[in-house]
Design brief:
The protein is α/β, with parallel strands linked by helices. It contains ten helices and nine strands. The structure holds 2'-O-acetyl adenosine-5-diphosphoribose.
Amino acid sequence: MASIPPDLIEKIQSAGSVVVLTGSGVSAESGVPTFRDAQTGLWERYDPQELATPEAFERNPRLVWEWYSWRRELVGKAKPNPGHLALAELERMSGLFTLITQNVDGLHRAAGNENVIELHGNIRRSKCSEEGIVVEEPEESEDIPPRCPHCGASLRPDVVWFGEALPYEAFEAAVDAARNCDLFFSIGTSSLVYPAASLPYEALDSGAVLVEINPDETPLSARADFVLRGTAGEILPELVEALQEQ
Ligand code: OAD
């Protein structure tokens, strides 16, 4: 495999613990538009940064719910791509393996990854806007948004909105995995959105080897030990193939 450095293959084989952080670039080849590219058709005139906030939901819960219903439908049609499938294979081939994702589409689990930390929630789930109780499948109802079956308050998508804190336990587990890994992959993320973007630095500070997979340069590129320029759907299957050939 021309594009995968042999040194990297050796590092993967000798790593006791591997952590992968993914962003929306990994789902691009499944046809899930990235957050910022998602505005087409009916929703063209809305700015996601003004819909994905607690304030927007307070102002117009129906609008925000309908926008998420549209996004949920897009995600519902998407299938894992070769990059997702290669990451599931990498987990099967590795000892300790943690996949941390900023994506809310659930495609890593659908591909077969098991040890997955979702930092920004999951668009397929809803939760009570008052009490936070998770409701997997809201019942059919006339109300938009539907109501919480326990207290009657509005349901909202179980995702992290701009200005909200990350789920505490998920972030703690992610920091712990990053601090204790030998090899850290940052894949398909612009490395701009904190606190997720702090995780590779935690790994570097603990002595891990850092690998970036992204067609474009990011603020993290200069700190990476290996930079693989290309899409996740191209590079990851090559990487797994190179490992299997050893
Ligand atoms: P961004 O949209 O900021 O960045 C996507 C990254 O993926 C860019 O660096 C692209 O170069 C890269 N990319 C595009 N296509 C790719 C491909 N096929 N393979 C690999 N890489 C590719 O998305 P995120 O970094 O995920 O948060 O953004 C982080 C968070 O910002 C999101 O989770 C969302 C958003 O605000 C919340 O909603 C809380």
